[in-house]
Amino acid sequence: MSQTDRLQAALNACPRLPLAHLPTPLEPLQRLSTALDGPEILVKRDDCTGLGLGGNKTRKLEFLMAEARTQAADTIITTGGIQSNHVRQTAAAAAKLGLACELVLTRVVPWGGPDYELIGNIQLDRLFGAKTHLHDGDTDRGAAMAALAERLQAKGRKPFAIPTGGSNATGALGYAAAALELREQLQAQDRTITAVVHASSSGGTQAGLTAGLAAVDPSVQVIGIDVDAHPAAVEGEVRRLAREVWDRLEPGGQLPEDSVRLEPGYAGDAYGLPTTEMRDAISLCAKLEGLLLDPVYSGKAMAGLIGMIRAGRFSQDDTIVFLHTGGTPALFPYREALVDQ
Ligand SMILES: *Cc1c(COP(=O)(O)O)cnc(C)c1O
């Protein structure tokens, strides 16, 4: 059996609930590629996963929610910032599956106008019927979730806790599966690519993609753009999770040591704080392609791709896939940072 077949068989054996619209489109960004005078750029539209305005967390939730169901949970608990896309997609998934949902939201971003705690993702969390618990930015999320779980258990509920970003080995399986999906699309379009570039934060997306592509298409580089302003910590987490995914799926051989690539320099001062390069990237993609990016993740990731192209990291013969991980509901609470006159 080839590594691809082994990976596919191992993934097929993992419990999974269908939540996402798959496969997501893989489309050329022709006008952007021309404007940058660099490699050909394709976009993998994981902002279009369909559930509750979509995004990368829906792929992870297909595996995480299956685990919750196996454990007969009746309530999903998860955590994130006030404008967390992961939290919003989890609230939507819980609603769709008929489960209660309680959210530990922390004020981690030292920025935000009056709209920040009312519109965008948090507005949608509440619309999906989830209960929001707001905490200070320095709150220990794990401890707050454990305390919440205890309170729910005391009332006879069966909570299932999902970590920040859905990033554990189970969630990351969603992106090992996405690697197979991408490979199939590239084969169907008769293309070979040099790299996949995307925003990396809690690490599950990059870990799953890295493990998956190392098994099925090892010539493709997976380049995570740090959006946390903590590249060493993100890289460590991606490496740890990628090894865990590899051990779980056992495609054969070893995960190559050099397969984890984290690009620093595009996060700005902190997670969630706007940068000029992010604004420019959002504006460029909107005006050239009618494509919406977001201020926290995909805008900074595109700024990273543009920065790498301008630095000559890729040639005109290369083809790069930009993985659009979603996040567009945050365009609204961040409007003060994005006015473009
Ligand atoms: C969560 C998120 C990411 C980062 O994915 P991780 O798996 O947490 O590294 C990127 N983009 C968007 C829009 C996200 O919501």
In short:
Belongs to the ACC deaminase/D-cysteine desulfhydrase family. With 341 residues, the protein is of the alpha/beta class.
Beta-strand content bin: 15-25%
Arithmetic mean pLDDT: 97
Bound molecules: pyridoxal-5'-phosphate
Helix content: 40-55%
Strand order within the widest beta sheet: 1-2-10-7-8-9
Strand tally: 10
Q: Please, how many helices?
A: 12
Low-confidence stretches: none
Strand count, sense and barrel status of the largest sheet are: 6 strands, mixed
Structural class: alpha/beta
| Terminal Cα span | 57 Å
Q: Give the helices and strands as they follow along the chain.
A: HEHEHEHEHEHEHEHEHEHHEH
Radius of gyration: 19 Å
Indicate the overall shape: globular
What does this structure look like?
With 341 residues, the protein is α/β, with parallel strands linked by helices. 43% of the residues lie in helices and 15% in strands. The chain has 12 helices and 10 strands. A 6-stranded mixed β-sheet has the order 1-2-10-7-8-9, with helices on both faces. Strands 5-4-3-6 form a 4-stranded parallel β-sheet, with helices on both faces. α8 (204-216) links the parallel β7 (195-200) and β8. α3 (57-70) crosses α4. The structure holds pyridoxal-5'-phosphate. Pyridoxal-5'-phosphate binds next to α4, β7 and α8. It holds the Pfam family PALP. GO terms for molecular function: D-cysteine desulfhydrase activity. InterPro entries: ACCD_DCysDesulf, D-Cys_desShydrase, TrpB-like_PALP, TrpB-like_PALP_sf. Keywords: Lyase, Pyridoxal phosphate. This is D-cysteine desulfhydrase.
